[in-house]
């Protein structure tokens, strides 16, 4: 198992990017989360085996039909052992 953080920039908000990412992650068995950022990017944390993550990142470079992905940045992260893949609706402020 491996953990990566993915930052997707371009026209990636308002195009069902998060919902599509969840559907693809669920199909592939990827665990983690996806959320919109204030700067217009989409932030993803993904955990799976290396081969699955490569295919997942390739999908992120395309995104759903209406998305226009300009850049995908992938950073290695620490394993968090997510149980599922969830869409984070808002940044909660405590």
UniProtKB/TrEMBL annotation:
Family annotation (Pfam families): Acylphosphatase (PF00708)
Location of the Acylphosphatase-like domain: 3-89
Catalytic activity field: an acyl phosphate + H2O = a carboxylate + phosphate + H(+)
EC number: 3.6.1.7
Annotated catalytic residues: 18, 36
Keywords: Hydrolase
Highest taxon, organism lineage: Bacteria
Family (UniProt): Belongs to the acylphosphatase family.
Protein name: acylphosphatase
Organism field: Pedobacter boryungensis
């Amino acid at each position: 198992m491996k953990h990566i953080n993915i930052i997707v920039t371009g026209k990636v908000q308002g195009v069902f990017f998060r919902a599509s990412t969840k559907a693809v992650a669920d199909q592939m068995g990827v665990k983690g989360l996806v959320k919109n950022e204030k700067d217009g990017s989409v932030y993803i944390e993904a955990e799976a085996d290396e081969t699955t993550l490569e295919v997942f990142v390739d999908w992120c470079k395309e995104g759903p039909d209406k998305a226009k992905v300009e850049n995908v940045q992938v950073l290695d992260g620490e394993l968090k052992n997510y149980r599922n893949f969830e869409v984070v609706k808002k940044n909660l402020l405590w």
